[in-house]
Amino acid sequence: MNQFLATTPFDLYELTLFQLVAETASFTRAAERAGLTQSAITRQIRGMEGRLGVDLFERTTRHVCLTPVGQLLREKSKAILKATDQLLDDVQRTLGRMPPTLRIGVARSIGLAYLPGYFFAFQRKCPEVQLQITHQTSGEILRALEAGNLDAGLVCPPPRLPPLLKVTHRFADEFTAITPAQFPLAPTVTKATIKQLKRHFENQRWLLIDRGGFTGRRLNHWLRTQSLHIEPAMELDSFDVIVNLVSLGLGVSLVPHRVLALYGQRRTVRRIAIQPRFSRELAVVVRRNRVTPEPLSSFVENILF
User: Fold this and answer.
1) How many whole angstroms separate alpha carbon 44 and alpha carbon 27?
2) DSSP SS3 for 69
3) Which helix (DSSP H) or strand (DSSP E) does residue 170 occupy?
4) What is d(CA 164, CA 144) in angstroms, rounded to the nearest whole number?
5) Is residue 151 a contact partner of residue 134, using CB atoms and an 8 Å limit?
6) d(C-alpha 208, C-alpha 198), whole Å
7) Staple partner for 196: which of 71, 192, 210, 296, CB 3.0–4.6 Å?
8) Do the first three CATH levels of 2-95 and 174-279 match, i.e. the same topology?
């Protein structure tokens, strides 16, 4: 049995991709429907042909059509895929249908205060859907989306997304300076230019977001363009942790003002608006499929910022 599985010329996944190419008569259109690149689906089909020792498609610069062997495989494999679908339906009816599940990745640099806007309206509308939430870096989330291990990601995106991914929502996320509550500064000071900020924060310990992430790199670049060269005492990958450390008197920082929504009544930090303002972009990212499946489309439609 193991020897058979190791030498079989194709599996159900490859057979499904073959049917897509045959149906669309185009590697490009089949790749779009499968959420793959054209080169990826071409490699899969060429692998099948190599293991079978025959050509399944005739390819020219203008069209793609089935060979006689390809036509035979298409007709016979339809029954296989239909039987597989029926088998899965029977198994679900026997064991009881599992509730639908969405796998969502949330970047570590996105604070807890943002999460109700992402999930609250959707969970009220679709309470039967289970959410599996992972907390990773934006880069790790994008790689997991490409691999099909996540359904959506809430990230600070890079300048260019991988070709298999797309953005469904974007919004600007403005930053503010924060200090401990007992910071030696007049209570009337609630705004500051960069020049004033340098003077107020001279010789202070800075706690900044990790420069290894997309947000950290952008913030570090912006600070340098403002001639504010900072060597932080600590770099962390969570703004919630940074706010808590600042509240304990361990330093000063620049954080998204929305993160502070959880600290409004506790008044554990002082806020100082800065001019010019720094803003990052946050985005909801999904795979670039032609049709977004349910319940993912409902999740995307119900995100609130």
Assistant:
1) 11
2) helix
3) strand 165-180
4) 12
5) no
6) 15
7) 192
8) no
Query: What residues contact 231, with CB distance under 8 A and at least 6 apart?
Result: 206
Distances (CA, A) of 213 to 142, 208, 276: 12, 12, 23
User: Residue 299 CA to chain centroid, in angstroms?
Assistant: 14
Rounded Cα distance, 176 and 250, in Å:
17
Asked if 169 and 119 count as a contact pair (C-beta separation under 8 A), the reply is: no
C-alpha–C-alpha distance, residues 296 and 169, integer Å: 13
Report the phi/psi class of residue 229: left, alpha or beta, with left for phi > 0 and alpha for psi in -120 to 50: beta
Tokens of 238: 């969570």
Annotation: CATH topology of 101-171+282-301: D-Maltodextrin-Binding Protein; domain 2 (3.40.190)
Residue recorded with tokens 């705004």: 191
pLDDT by residue, tens only, the chain of 305 residues: 444 444 577 888 888 899 989 988 889 888 887 878 888 899 999 999 988 889 999 988 778 999 999 999 999 888 888 888 778 767 766 655 667 789 999 999 998 888 888 888 899 888 888 899 999 999 999 999 988 889 999 999 998 998 889 999 999 999 999 999 999 988 889 999 999 999 999 889 999 999 999 999 999 999 999 999 999 999 999 999 999 999 999 999 999 999 998 776 556 899 999 999 999 999 999 998 766 777 888 888 888 76
pTM of the prediction? 0.68
Structure tokens at 50: 């190599």
Q: What residues pair up with 134 in beta bridges, in sequence order?
A: 105
Domain 174-279 bears CATH identifier 3.40.190.290: yes
Helix (H, G, I), strand (E, B) or coil at 126: coil
Instruction: Report the DSSP pairing between strands 279-287 and 152-155.
Output: antiparallel
